[in-house]
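DATA SHEET
Item: assembly model
Revision: 1
Owner: S.N.
Input lines:
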Amino acid sequence: MQGLIYLYKTAAKNRILKALRRPVTYVYLVGGIAYVTMIASFLVQWAGRIGADTPEGLVTGLSLLVLFLMPSSFATYAKRKGIVFKPGDIHFVFTSPASPKLVLWFTQIKQYLLGFILYLTVSIVGILFFHIVPWKMFLYFVFSFIVENILEGSLVILLYGNEKLSENTLRWLARSLWCILGLLVLFGAFLIFTKELSFQLITDFLGHPFLLCIPVIGWNLAAIRLLLLGPTVVNVICSAAYIAAALLLLVCARRMKCTGEYYEDAVKFSDDYMETVKRKKSGDVVGPGPKARYRKASVTYKGGYARAIFYRQLLEYKKNKYFIFNLYTLFAFLGGLGIGYYCYKTGTPGSIKGYYVIPGVGAYLTLIFSGYATKWSKEMKNPYTYLIPDQPVRKLWYATAIEHVRSLIDGCLLAVPGVIIMGFSPLTAVLYILIYACLQANKLYINILGEVLLGDVLGAFGKQIFQMLFQGIIMCIGIAVCVVVTALTGVQGGLLGLLIYVLIATGAIATGGSIAFQRMEVL
Amino acid sequence: MLEVMHLTKKYRKTLAVDDVSFSVPDGSIGILLGPNGAGKSTIIKSIAGLLRYDGEIRIQNFPGRSPEAKKVFGYVPEIPAMFDALTVAEHLEYIRRAYQSDITDEETGALLARFELEDKKDKLGNELSKGMMQKVSICCALAVKPKVMLFDEPMVGLDPKAIKELKDVIQELSRDGVTILISTHMLEMVKDIWEVMFVMDKGKILASYTREEAAHRDIDELFFTITEGEKGICKD
């Protein structure tokens, strides 16, 4: 226990001190507070507009939060996932004489702290904006923080640390929790289909005795209602059951034997998680789970030096299940269908506005999806890339060539349905596709330039902001260019002007970004 | 004393360790040898309490996972991992508290000096190179003042001076009655210090020798005779 207290206290102190020494922390802090304030004020205003700035409104919001979070977190604990141990914990904590139950309990500390902040915020918001008397909110705060943490902490130990229940039983337990969630969704859907959808209906649903009687999850909702709305027979009984359940689970958790068999699952989950983090950092779009399986494939190298990078990437992609396609291809496809549907419903083929729907959506998609790095970004972390005797610009080109092919395909998926429905010319379609591919290339090279210019100064999030701002500026200039040229020469001239502008901008950024392929130390 | 009795470990359908039994007497230096995939790491991780297993492991006569066993058990894993936000000195302080070890400040200072970590003691875990991490990992295991010590490929990543120091430390520990088990591929590194040898392949112990039983036979010769001989038998 002493060791764990020392570990968590010292680590937290060092982290805070380190963060305070970095100027970027203050930037993030101000940005974060501004963002949270903006979201909160928006929610409060919205609640006011729909007449939900009442105790019932807050109870509805909190109940939805409980329904959204509780079953899924219990299910992850039952699957022995959801708690991430770092490699340092495995090395130094798992092998130490610390009680495995305490180890589990301490990993929850961060969650307790987050819960503390959340409940405190909810209490303040409740008093200020939902017109609830302070003593009730204080009671809610104390009750939620203490009872919910006792319950959740005990459940974590009982589910995660259990050495008697077989893996199969735990799996079924997780499934049954998902079933409860499914039943709730069905019940909600039943109400929506049988009655008219309104805020009152949601409130009725969340206060329905059937829902409040569901063990643990429903009882929690009942306790919230009891504290903030006042007693009813169902509320009181279910709240008492909730407190009794928390105490019972605490006693069971204390008495349960736990020698640390869960360490094996924790080590495996930690390895998978760390691998996923690593893969995400290097640009793969993946979730925690088994390693990717590859098919057999071959490729003929038609050229050497930097071109070999292209063929090696092609070989890797051929081994992939979905070749060069990924989730973004699906988004492009759905975007294309959406545009097609929009054009079908509202299309005015002759109007200038109609011509700019497709490039507009393309630009929007390019901007909102942060620069996802794929195989090209790994090239920059590979020492062999720098050892290849070739020009940095050629290395950059061949490392990113497949991305351009992918963008062209995505551009086709995005543009073709709309073009067909609107009856635009093939030349217009080609311009759309090229503009989209150029915008994507622009994003990609801004990404590389961001790496060169910023390195690790702002962190991953800071780099994303830089990329979005930079590309936003380029797009704004592009819109201005397009408007002027369209006014002077017509729509196709405008599109061509836009394409030429984006090409020049992309070329300039790519030349700057190619420094990244000159020396590894640039990064 | 370290005792492994009928240890069996399956990863789903793969049998990684098949009914393995061995023991390392008090104050002896045991080495666990075997090619890649032989099951050495699984045994080491099972002893360290990181895996579920069938069979029994006893450390100083305590069940392997019990707090009493862990209190007298030091472990140096193959791939060291540090706490990112703790300095080297704070790692040692954590060990002192977690194990209620009676190691003094002078002793931890001497340990750091021995492994040339004095000037690194204020460095955070995520600022260390792999070799440095390995040295810190060794220092932390020694700070436990263990009765049983487990090394998994301890020489990997160490510079020659640190390897020499480690070998000296292992022999000193042995003289002080500490039981040691080293799992390694680097036969050259352990040939002067081993006292009991266990050669593994395919999840089983193929042979075990004490230094006396091996007489003056070279460790490489013994290892290859056992492993290659086994292959020969299989072929027949």
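QC remark: The two ends of chain A are 42 Å apart (CA to CA).
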